[in-house]
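Cross-check.
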Amino acid sequence: MIGTILVVIVSLAAWGTDPEYFGTGGIALLVWYVLGAAIGVKRFREVSARIPTPFLVIGGALGVVGSVVMVVHLPVAAPTIGYVSRSLEATIWGVVAAVIEVAGAFALTTAWARYPRTSAWMAYIGRHSLSVYLAHIMVTAGVRIVLVRLGVTDLWLHMGIAVPLAVLFPLILERVTRPFPYLFVPPWRVKKRPARAAAAA
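Predicted model, tokenized:
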């Protein structure tokens, strides 16, 4: 409990900054990892199972839309980007907007998960989110470089091309490298080393 509180304090203190010291990048995001670990999947499922689907949909939609409205109309400091005029007000609104948006996203995805026929593909992406996280930067950076070289600077076009590819490419890469899973799986979790298996054969 004390460790969780300390992480929350550090994350909030670093909110809206862009530290230049090694190992401090994205430190404001630690709060989400720690809170997720503290709550746990089992407890989250037990609580969310008691909430009717319509409430999840309505509450989730209000959370996502509300956070977008806040970003547009209020001084909202993003967690890991240096805010030009960082202030207590911008930090508070930034934290509130992030909490509302995360809660809204969780509510919508929880409601959607109750319909596996349509949500199975999203669940697949979720199970491979580590692969997407580790490999997406190669795609987003590559797409940005190519488009800028071609003279394309429209933000929505960049996102429309980069985001789908940044999800699809890591999934394909994970599938292709599955016989040699060292890109996305820690060595100690690999049950049978391919090299040893080949040597044994």
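Confidence is low (pLDDT under 50) at residues 194-201. Residues 157 and 199 are 49 Å apart (CA to CA). Passed to J.P. for a second look.
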